[in-house]
Structure formats: structure tokens, C-alpha cells
Amino acid sequence: MALKHKGLDDFGRVPVSFRDRSPIAFSNQDRIPVLVDGDHWVNDSWEIACYLEDAYPDRPTLFGGEMGRAEALFINAWTQQIQNPGLINIILWDAFQAVDPADRDWWREDREKRYGSLEIYQNGKDEKLVSWRQSLEPMRVTLGEQQYLGGETPAYADYIVFGTIQFARCVGQYDVLEPGDPIRDWCERLLDMFDGFARQAPTVTT
Amino acid sequence: MALKHKGLDDFGRVPVSFRDRSPIAFSNQDRIPVLVDGDHWVNDSWEIACYLEDAYPDRPTLFGGEMGRAEALFINAWTQQIQNPGLINIILWDAFQAVDPADRDWWREDREKRYGSLEIYQNGKDEKLVSWRQSLEPMRVTLGEQQYLGGETPAYADYIVFGTIQFARCVGQYDVLEPGDPIRDWCERLLDMFDGFARQAPTVTT
């Protein structure tokens, strides 16, 4: 979404499987995403956004200046500390079902180190979903006032939160946002952007 | 803090008691704060910040542009929906003790409509404090990376959260932030600003 936002449309994508990180071996680390731009590479979504903003300052802005970037870091932290853990709690089992069978042993071992037994996540999803939706209230209030977290147009802050919901959308087995929720409407607007770019992402049901 | 940030130092302050809103009767509404600037008035902290930013664009910025303003609205919503209710839960009883005795009947009736019996808030403060501190984790993570929510300098976003903690500091009977907490250090930096302006606010113990 950040690449598209910057109008950097001619990028390629290289699949990286969980069990085989050889496509990113050049980076001497094993975390995705990794962005390669000419002879430069950068990993971590936040760092990639910062790199794009700094390397392409004349393209549409992701942060709207240093203060906007600083505030977006809070939204990033909120997403990582509050919003995404709540969502993972709901979709972890579904995510496991969506993993390439050849990756499942790797994935189970890795994820169980962090989250405990995957089987725990089969249950209680409805209650967790209610609680997760409630935790989004600050976003709901904000989107009652403006179209995007970035205001009249999306900012990187929007893509931070959207990325986690897009993940749920692609691997989950039911909608996490209710009809009529302003956050769902916001999500639909982001799915429509860039000629429906995010809508074209493969999902477990397609 | 927003006035000081804008370098608008020559303001006066008019006390408004809970039971008597006659000083703001001209505004045909009863909520404080109300800012009067020449023949213009505006109420609501967020609206006041927006007014100052727009009316004094050549002074130090509170938002850093439209995207920063939009993102600050999320931080405002997070403060109002999550952070401040958690803090009120802890300090409501202390706040009641700090109310001018002549205002107490008014205050009890008004607050009990919103929060239920004030007596409930005498208990469980230690547990509520642990939970409130935990809810600040996104801010703690952010302040691990930068001095202020606004980055290297404070933004209105900082003053939003600070205002609620300053309220607790002035009416509460114990520190809500632990020594060593980056949020406490941030709070101390804000208390030092503008020649210790916020530090000079009267508290129940002074």
C-alpha cells in the first residue's frame, strides 16, 4: 500500500515461505517484509515506510511531515500492542489452517513459542471478537469525523491498521467487522484504492 | 499548554465554579474550557487547539500540517475513550475530595449521573492503577523511540494526554506514574516547559 501510495507501481514480489528464507538471505536476517530498491534494502514495515518517505519526498506523502511521522509511530505502537494482538487471538487458528501444509510444522513450532498451544485458539472467537471490536473504539470515533486516519486522504497510519485487518481478511474464515461499522466502510475504501489492489490479494476462500 | 506553545503568553484566566457558569454565559453553553480571543470565542479543547493553529499559523505548529492534525484526532479519541476513563476510575474519589465544598452537591449529582455512586471509587485503586498503566503501553513504546508524541518537540497530541495526567497530579493523592516509566520522564519534561508553567498549577497538597 505504501509503494502504491508513492506511485511506485513497477515493483515485483518474491514469495518467501516460512520454512525457507533463502530469498532474503542477502539481508542477513530472517524477517519479512524486505524492500529492495536498487542496491539498497530495508526490512520492517515501519522502516520501509520511512525509507520510502525519505527516498521519494516529491511523491505523495505517507506522513505529512515530521510531526505526522511521530504521531504515526504512536498509531503503529497502538496497532502492535493492542489492536493486532487482539486480532491474532481471534484468527490464529484460522491462520494455521491457511498455512501451506509443507510450512505447518515450522509454523506451529514458531508460533507456539510466542502464543502457546494453537489449539487454544479454536475456541471463544465470538467473545474475543466483541472485545476486539470494542478496542477499536478510538478509531471508530476518529472515522466518524474524517474519512481516514490521515484526514481527507490516507496516510501510512491507515495502512498500518489496514494491513492487520487485510491479514485477517485473507486468512480468516469470517468477517471481523460488522456491516454499518465506520471501520468497515473505511476498510472498503482502502480495498477500492489503486484500482482495487488490496482486494485482489488471494484469500483462503479464493 | 497550547497557548504557551503558540507563544501567546499574555492571556488571563477566569475561574469558573461548577455551580456557577455565569462567567461563560456569553457563550450560550456551559462547558469549559472556553477561549476568548478578541471578539471570537471557542469552546472544547480540541476546537481551541484547531482555532489557535488556524488563527496563528506563523507561530510554532501544534499539528505539523493536516495529516498530523488528523492523526492527533486519533490520539484525542484514544485519550477520551481509553486513557482518561481509566484514570477517572482511579481518581474520581480523590477529585471529589478536592472539589470546593460549596460545589460538592452540584458535583456529586452531576458526576453520579455519568459514573454512578462516587463511593464505589474509594476502593480498588491499586488494581485499577496497574490496569491503567498497562493501557498506556502504546505510549510507552512510542516514548522509547522519541522524546514526545510529536517527535523531537511536543505537539498538541502531547498536551492532550498530558492534560489528563496533570488533572490527576493536581487532584489526586498519589503519583499515577512510577519512577523509571518513560511516560513519567515525558511528563516531567512537559512540566519543565515554559519555565515550569504546568508545575506551578495549584494541587490539593499545595
Q: Given the structure, what is the number of helices of chain A?
A: 8
Mean pLDDT of chain A: 95
Q: Trace the largest sheet of chain A across and list its strands.
A: 1-2
> How far do the termini of chain A sit from each other?
21 Å
Count of distinct strands of chain A = 2
Radius of gyration of chain A, whole Å: 17 Å
Question: Biggest interface, which chains?
Answer: A-B, 33 and 33 residues
What profile does the largest beta sheet of chain A have? 2 strands, antiparallel
| Percent in strands of chain A | under 5%
Order of helices and strands of chain A: HEEHHHHHHH
Outline of chain A, from the CA principal axes? Answer: globular
Percent helix of chain A, as a range, is 40-55%
Assembly form of the protein: homodimer
Task: Give a structural overview.
2 copies of one chain form a homodimer. In chain A, 53% of the residues lie in helices and 4% in strands. Chain A is mainly alpha-helical and 206 residues long. In chain A, strands 1-2 form a two-stranded antiparallel ribbon. In chain A, a hairpin with a 2-residue loop joins strand 1 and strand 2 (40-43). In chain A, helix 3 packs antiparallel against helix 5 and helix 3 (66-98) packs parallel to helix 7 (156-171). The model of chain A has no long low-confidence stretch (mean pLDDT 95). Chain A binds chain B through residues 61, 63-75, 77-78, 80-82, 137-139, 141-142, 145-146, 148-152, 155, 157, and chain B through 61, 63-75, 77-78, 80-82, 137-139, 141-142, 145-146, 148-152, 155, 157.
